[in-house]
Amino acid sequence: MAEAARAGARILIVALSGRALAQSARRAGFVPIVLDRFADLDTREVAELALRIPPGRAGPLASGALSRAARGVAPPPVPLLVGGGLEGRPRLLAALARGRELLGNPPATVARAVDPFALCELCRALDVPFPETRAELPAERRGWLVKRAGAGGGWHVRPAEAVDRPHPLDYVQRRVPGRPVSILLLGDGRRVLALLASEQWNTGAPPHFKGVLAPAPLDEDSRARLARAAVAVGTALGLRGLASADFLLDEDGSFHLLEINPRPGGSLEAAEAALATNLVALHVAACRGRLPERPLRPEGGFRGTAIVRADRDLLVPEGFVWPEWAGDRTPPGTRISAGRPLATVRAGGDDARAVRRALAERERLLLARMLDARGRARHPAPAGGGER
């Protein structure tokens, strides 16, 4: 593609998990270099180089290790594409982008988009419903949630009555009803388009991101109202490239915007399949000022992905044969603690509920196959094995 040639082919991808971005980038003609938390097998297959960055104290990727790796394996002017994991770290983002093209939102835009108080004020000005948000715990804590600014994935969300000493980055938000629906956005810094609505679901306590279904099974009026609100906020922020607006949609049709994710997110793989369009190519073009001339429409049917977490402590066996519908394939010899991510499963079909059932069945089947291949892991990882 022309975008790949213009980018000089090589592109640096930094994300908590960069596999879906790397695969899309490779299909678009780029040669990705990936720095993420996992360096999964299928990331390595499409990347020129994939390096695992350990977690840090201030976020899911250690800043020192990440900065050194970026300078060492993809020094400027290799362009930078950032996925999830750096939203709350604008200084690190600025340091990584120094001397190179940033294919995404600049640090100041990211900081404003993830600031819950700035977003609350913006939504009030635009008449977009947003939950009541405070800096301090209320006297009556029932019906309130404590969240962490700049965090993602849902792990940071706790009932206010369970929190005694909030973190300096915590804020308090009134609980609102509804099911999670996200609007995928594409902007060029001036205009913003709504590409697709997706349905998301969580699991666990505290609830954390589990899966996504695209497109969301919504009536046209609900989809249009969410899209209008998302576009209004995204335009006011001046978003560039792919981003998403997360809502809670109640049964009566009312909704609240919860947050803006100013980067490609967890819906990318399912959305790309549903739209039958390369989203990294669209992202790069939009960051360079070009939006699609024609509206994108889902091709028909539904596409879904779901994260599979280990149901017990286990060791990924050597020679394990991964099914074609599994992504984010953990390398052999990796010790995985119960509850940590093992892989992602994919499914598609004409019925939304059937796709959700297929994802659940494939999750069960994948875990069973791994136990059959290795048995119950009772030994530590061999020398050189990683931990996830």
Q: Which strand-content bin applies to the residues?
A: 25-35%
Task: Quickly give the structural class.
Answer: alpha+beta
Mean pLDDT: 91
Gyration radius over CA: 20 Å
* Number of helical stretches of at least 4 residues: 11
* Distance linking N and C termini: 36 Å
The tally of beta strands, per DSSP, is 19
What is the string of SSEs from the N terminus onward?
HEHEHEHEHEHHEEEEEEEHEEHHEEEEEH
Count up the domains: 4
List keywords for this structure.
single chain, 388 residues, alpha+beta, D-amino Acid Aminotransferase, Chain A, domain 1, 4 domains, eight-stranded antiparallel sheet, five-stranded parallel sheet, 11 helices, 19 strands, disordered N terminus
